[in-house]
Amino acid sequence: MLCYVCTGRHDNAWLSPKGCMMFSCPLALRPRSHLLAHLSLLQHIVALSVVTAIRTAPGYEELPVCIKWPNDIYYQNRVKLGGVLVSVFSASDPTSPTTAVIGCGVNVSNKYPTMSVNDCIQLHNNTTHSSSSTSSSSRGGGIILPPFTVEALLALSLNRLERYLSLYEHSGMSAIETDYYHYWLHKDAVVQLGSHANEEVTVRGIDQFGYLRVVTQTGEELNLRPDGNSFDIMNNLIVMK
Q1: pTM, whole model, 2 decimals?
Q2: For 149-188, what is each residue's pLDDT tens digit?
Q3: Strands, DSSP E only, in the chain?
């Protein structure tokens, strides 16, 4: 089986077997760009674009594909389906655009190394449609959902990305946060914070830079940077890197 191996955050291996949607997309950001001043938010916007590409497709609205902070795409809170990495290259001339290169990989039809979007669709079909039933509904409850192709999901994802980037550039975080939190795994989650002796904190959301906002039991609000903290969702723990 052909499989490409790339390097992700913190030298983690990023596998791309056949059936994985893997793409790079450069963005040229003007010096006065609103996104340029909040570049760490870009990975969140990309993850949102991929998730909504899947879940706004007719019939796929209830497919439990979600956003995991800061840059992962998950099936429920159980299995990673994909991730995002953004690299930034600043021009020596401050009047020239800054280039942000988006790297994204999503398991679309490959069963290795974890599971794929199409596996999630098959699980959904098995749950919502019995083999003896011939009925269908307008909401897709009894309809067998077809799998995605890599090409179709890529086109849908880039269309969503273009839309969210335009919304953010014109109106800021308020224009996209409703969608973001709708597909986010962590709303009001109570987790342990490793940097504070495993104290329990409550997740409140993300700030303007995409940092995780949590509130301690004493009411103190903390903003956690994604490059210094990792969300161990299986153990309900935020740990320092």
Answers
A1: 0.88
A2: 999 999 999 999 999 999 999 999 999 999 999 999 999 9
A3: 3-7, 13-17, 20-29, 65-68, 72-75, 79-89, 98-107, 190-193, 199-206, 212-216, 221-224, 229-232, 237-240
